[in-house]
Amino acid sequence: MIVTRSWLQEWIDISNIETEDIIKKLNSIGLEVAEYKKIDIPSKIVVGKVLECEKHPNANKLSVCEVDIGSEVKQIVCGAKNVAKDQFVPVATIGATMPNGLEIKPVKLRGIDSEGMICSSTEIGLPKLEDGIMVLDDSIGELILGKELKEYKILNDEIIDIELTANRGDCLSIYGVARELSAAFNLPIKTINDLNIDLNEKLQKGIGRVLRIKHQDCDANLIYKVFSYEKEYKNPLKIRVRLSFLQEDFKNEIENLAFYVTHSVGTIIRGYSYNIFKNEDSAIIEIKKDSNNLDSIYNINNQKISTIGVNQTRKSYPTDSEEFFIVEASYIDPNLLSKRFYEAKNIETDWVYYRSSRGSNPNLHMGIEYFCYLISIYSNMDIFSGEHEIAKEREKKSININLDNISKLIGSDISSNDFVRIIKKLEFEIVKNEDVNIVVKIPPFRHDIENEQDIAEEYLRFFGIDKIEPKPFEFKEKNRINSSMLNFKKRKFLRNLAISSGFYESVSYIFADRAKFKKYGLKTIKESLDLINPITNELNSLRTSLIPGLLEQTVNNIKNGKKRVKLFEIGTVFDENRDEKISFAFVFSGNRNEDSIVNHGKPKEVDFEDFVLDISSIIGDFELKSCKSENRLMHPYQSANILKDDIVLGKIYKLHNSIQKDLELPVTYICELDFEKIPYSLKEAKEYSKYQASYRDISILIDNSVEFSQIKDILNKNLPKEIKRFYPVDIYMDDKLGDKKSLTIRFIVQSDEKTLNEEEISDIIEKIINILKQELNAELR
Amino acid sequence: MKKWIEKIQNSINLEELEEIRVKIFGKKGILAQEFKKLKNLSNEEKPKVAKELNELKNRLNGLICTKKDELQKKALQEELIKENIDPSLYSPYNIKGALHPVQDTMDRIVEYFISMNFSIENGPLIEDDFHNFEALNLPKFHPARDMQDTFYFKDEMLLRTHTSPVQIRTMLNNEPPIRMISPGAVFRRDFDLTHTPMFHQVEGLLVDKKQRVSFANLKFILSDFLKYMFGDIDIRYRPSFFPFTEPSAEVDISCIFCKGKGCRVCSHTGWLEVLGCGMVDPNVFKAVGYKDVSGYAFGLGVERFAMLIHKIPDLRSLFEGDLRLLEQFR
């Protein structure tokens, strides 16, 4: 919502208040100022009058003008097509510096002296108004030859852009903002009556001769008025300049004027062609509900011309080829309009819908009178006397208020006098005022006020939130540790471990490219549960894994010249049924270390062991069991389940060579875990042996196909209790061994009761060798 | 004898010194030979020569010990020198990773409210219309519910547009008093320089029976919180509008870049908008069936906080996993 200082001044006398203070005040009462701009026309640009204007003898496109600038008459060469005798124009005189830095000097143009420049609106720092030079008129003030243009406040205006919240339709007009300022600064506001409108000499025969209205039950309030059209009517400079600040131009002078009135006083005003409703020697407007149950207006041929508060057909704008035009003022309850509009869906709207649906000014007479007033002072058009009005009675809402409630809500005592004073300024009517109980009637333009808390806000806006003394809240102690809190701690704990292992935390969108997930052989959410309105094709579904996102980021980092990328993410993923789950994923790509003195600048690429050690330093001990590759990202021979206490936490694998090649990545390892399944609980200490431990290595020959995890499972089934731990320490394969491999396993032997002697240790090892021989067909080497 | 003293003094390492020691003190060493000669001497001469020999023995022994000590020290020194390195060659680089600035900022925010005895509550990302809109006083036809802003699914579910539905869920599952925050990802259908389709919010809610909760309480906690996050700043409250609070306010802090003088970041206003808040609207309490309660609520954008605190210029860069950015938070 754009307001300007001179425009506000028409309704409230702010001449003694600095603009800076106005902006501060607007912010403090909840009308947030988003932007402020001042137009400053430079010095030495003055009002001039073109006395003579003739073609340049040596140039087709130039004119030579004699221009009266008050003190003298100057000869100025002008290139604009629209320059003409008797025009009042802005003249940049010798010595003026234009906003673009150009300095005006006497020049010769094609052999003719030119002492100054006749300016266009953009040349003096205003928005573009028309092609060619700017023609002045006295709507901006009395035109005095030689008077500097910087003295005209309507041109040198201050423009304030207010970011209105959705509830404040009442401030979608200059008058509405002026009303707020009047309450804030305690200044009187002008009413339409203060304009002393006298239309008598303009009034013509009665409207009944030229327009009839047919209507059924109608939810809107409407007024229609008819005017005679003046050929080539053009809105005065003041109106055109102000509309240019709003960046509005409907390319139709009546439509522009209607918009100007709407923006000035808040009443929705539209102009219509007369002929479109014409029926023989009169015109008929029919108002009825359309198929969406919205009040609409139709012509005699049952063509819909407009929908009240929503739109209007373009061809129904007034044109000066017609004798008359029709003007309509309308109001419709914004909640009703929004509801019906929502139910109807996909209706085209124009500028009116925004204002109507947020609540326009229900005072239709104010809009119509102001329109007539502008027509009477800026045109020679005639106004048909009388008007057609469809008035729906609207009862004012009243609300009961208890001042104690409001004091408690705000946390500060408020005085009844203060309260009543502020509320009244906002045109709320006090119906009853007894002690702390007050009954307030809500003005019709404040459809957003519904209850006591809304009224409290109105008071608070003008009282000032900054004046409330902060007070600590007193509460009963309560244990607030819940599963979310524990999850927060677990997350933080694991994330910190991940960064200690050199991983960088990443955050990526939960959106996914369905086609890409399919290409990788990953799950996708069911088609019937997918997004209706994705923002782009690459983000058209939800992710079922964090990996594609991390891989994409890895690819970009490698493209950016990184040789080593370690990323992790904890984030939500979805299953086919769109159920949410938290996933914890890692990618390690490229060199295992940064280039350094230790590796002579040639670090090795990451391998399975490096990656496993990294993951283990984050989530602790785990077991690996090889698994089948489930999708096209997984390497068929380097993929494993990560198990802890026989629960599969997730997968760890090398990125499949073909995908690695496609993505132009170095060697890449991947791990994705189910966050919920990672244990995070207090540890219990067990008793431990105080006797000496011995280490014994056993080397066996065994079938190539037997995995260590199988050996482990078999040993674990009948392991002597003195074996505290065993683990592989060497593996050897060569052609001589054929389809066998040599595996060395180290056993830690320790008793809880005594220090074992050599013989006892040998017995235990013998047992193990027997198990290996019998169960696995292993040979001792 | 002088010859031996010189030999000791000139020996250059422990091995040579040991050789000399053996030659002097060994069974066949010169001293042994000299002592053997004693028996050939007369009784008068014997004590005198013996005494001289003993003195010599002590003297040589002393010399050897001193020399040995000296050589040992020298050897240790040489060993140490050999182990000399240039530590500056080993300045570690890129060993530790870093937390993401958005997640880290969210942690800091959450930790403040934990310390103030708020509970953490989480809710689903996929929500229904009731929890995300209807119960929050955003009826279907409300202007703030533009179809363009919300991601919808084919089964009429949607991606939550704010963390506020967690307030509704928490109120429906608990009796007042409630004192909670809800951190998490939210989604709006908007993608340009200053908007990403996913971002993060932290929402706060306090509800108590009767009219115990006031705007003054809200101001107290938010002012304290903002000083914890941003340091010594001025705070300004501006009336505003949210469907789920009434009265509502937006909270500005004095610009942390120009100290309120006006700069590009604060659009020359001297103020930065950082959060929205207000007293819970009676319609919200009605929707969850609460009677005779009062409460306040507030919400903030985590990315906005992270960008201000860490001076990150581009919002979209936060979701690209770009190490050139992330490495800076190591």
Could you characterize the architecture of this molecule?
Chain A is 25% helix and 28% strand. In chain A, the strands form ten sheets. Chain A has a seven-stranded mixed sheet with strand order 26-29-30-34-33-32-31, sandwiched between helices. The mean pLDDT of chain A is 93. Chain A is of the alpha+beta class. In chain A, 37% of the residues are buried. Chain A folds into six domains: 53 residues, no CATH class; 107 residues, Nucleic acid-binding proteins (OB fold (Dihydrolipoamide Acetyltransferase, E2P)); 197 residues, 3-Layer(bba) Sandwich (Phenylalanyl-tRNA Synthetase, Chain B, domain 3), CATH 3.50.40.10; 70 residues, Phenylalanyl-tRNA Synthetase, Chain B, domain 1 (2-Layer Sandwich); 194 residues, Bira Bifunctional Protein, Domain 2 (BirA Bifunctional Protein, domain 2), CATH 3.30.930; 87 residues, 2-Layer Sandwich (Alpha-Beta Plaits). Chain B is of the alpha+beta class and 330 residues long. In chain B, β6 and β7 form a beta hairpin. In chain B, α1 runs parallel beside α4, α2 runs antiparallel to α4 and α5 crosses α10. Chain B is 40% helix and 20% strand. A seven-stranded mixed sheet of chain B has the order 1-4-5-9-8-7-6, sandwiched between helices. A two-stranded antiparallel sheet of chain B has the order 2-3. Chain B is rod-shaped. Chain B contains eleven helices and nine strands. The longest helix of chain B is centred in the first third of the chain and has 38 residues. The chains are: A alpha+beta (781), B alpha+beta (330).
